[in-house]
Structure formats: structure tokens, C-alpha cells
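Example for reference:
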Amino acid sequence: MNADLHPALAGSRSVGLDIGGTKTHGVVLDADGSVLAQVRLPTEPGADGVVATAHAVFESLRTETGLALDGRLGVGVPGLVDVGRGVLRHAVNLGVDGADLPLRDLLSELLGRPVAVENDVNAAALAASALTGADDVVYLSLGTGLAAGLVLDGRLRRGPHGAAGEIGHVPVDPAGEVCGCGQRGCLETFASGRALARAWPTTRGFPSTALFSAADAGDEKAVAVRDRYCWGVASAVRVLGLTIDPERIVVGGGVAEVGEPLRRGVVDQLARLGEGSPFLASLELGERLVMVPPGFPVSAVGAAIRGR
């Protein structure tokens, strides 16, 4: 899949910020859907730091483009978001834990323009829909945790409690380890970046890159760890296929930077899951699976689309 947005998602020039625990990534999306400019800065922790970093990234984008950038700003953030009020309710990785942070109003007052705030995985799902041109899309994020963003009939599905797409907390092994959510054997304990780092720790580079490189080199232990990880991702894809039945399942997040080797591994595990089930095999889940193009700022682009 290339990084061109579907023509239906073209529109006015817009700005999106993806505020993460380590960095804030800002993009300017041109009217034709191309990325006109992008800036990354380390995220300062805490409520004041998050706002200050967002301000700095936005001003850097204005300087780089020489444009006023006076339209609505879209912002994607991890954690629980009250979209209607533009409030970040809980985001431990940002140092925002406890009191609600009225992020929309703070940024709108500081920048002098309207702001739309969205959960980062939901924002990425909008970009996934734009990349595939499909109205029924699941974006599966393999980040520190495991979560999915849902676009159904062209609209984001958040759920009345904001829990739609919390695929990482579906238990699949009653004898598995305790998950951070308090349940046991959740998908997140098998198929997240945190789970991969625990299973294949490394002091150099990214654990995902080290694992897949070692497996490709024939390391038997690495092959076993890789296959178990890909089974976990395939299990998440199976749940999404059976409950949502999307046209496309787009995989992104830090682990997904591995690219094609990860996709092949997950497709192989999906085929194994379907060996004893003609019904499951008939769903052809592997053929619906695509990866976010390497280096594509999916959450920031999605935030820009949300801003529109």
C-alpha cells in the first residue's frame, strides 16, 4: 500500500498533531492529501508541558511552511478523551493522571483557532480509511499496548463509554499472565510492543527489529518468539474479523515498522488458525491485511483529517 490518500479525502489544507509520551509529531496536510511539512519535538511531561510542546510544534510548522495555518487544528492524544468537551481525562504516559485536562480550550486560546481533540488510535483509523479508500476499516495499533480504531460506514465508532476497539483487553488464555487491566491472559500480553520487548529484550535498537532479524538468520529461539508474537496479532485480527468484518485491517504502530516480514508472519498464522475451520478460512482475513507504509505519520495525518 502506498502513502497516497484516497481522492475522496482531499479537502482544505489542515494541521494535525500526534502528541505521544516521548514525542509530538505535527504535520501540515495539503489540499490534495499530501504531507506538506512535518515537525517532531520531544514531549514535555505534565499538563503544562503537553500544551507547551503542542504550541512549539505548531509554531515550527508555521515557520517551516511560511503559512498562517489558520484553519482548525486536529490533535490526537493517547488515553481517555471526552471528544464532545475536548477534554483529556486520563493519560499516564503524558504525565496527565487525575484531574481532567481541557486540552481543546487551552490550545484554542493559546493558538487563536478552533481545535478538535481525538484519541490517537481513532485519529489513525481516519488516516487508515483515507489510505485504503474503504468505508469499513479497522486500524490495529501495535504500540506499547494493543488497541484498534474503527471506521464503520465512513464514521468513527467510539462507543458510548469510549471503549470501542479496546481489543488488547480481550482475554484469550485463562492461564496467561495478569494484564495491566486486571484480567488474565489478554491479547495485549501476547501482541503488544511491551509483550515483544519482554519476550525478546535487547540493549541495542528496537526489540522488534532485533527479533525479526534473528529469526530470519535462523535463530530457533527467535523463530519461536516471532511465531508466538505473530499468533497473538493474528488472534487479534481474527477477533476483529469475526466481530466487525471490515473491508480492510490496517496494521500500524511502532512494531509495524518491521513491515513486510511482520505481515507475512501474521498471514501465515492466520492460515494455520484456518486449517481446521473452513468457515474461518473462507473469511480470507489474510488478504484483507495491509501495513501502514514505513515512516508514514498515520496518527498525525489522521488528526489533520479529524481537524477538517
Notes: The chain has a mean pLDDT of 92. The chain has eleven helices and twelve strands.
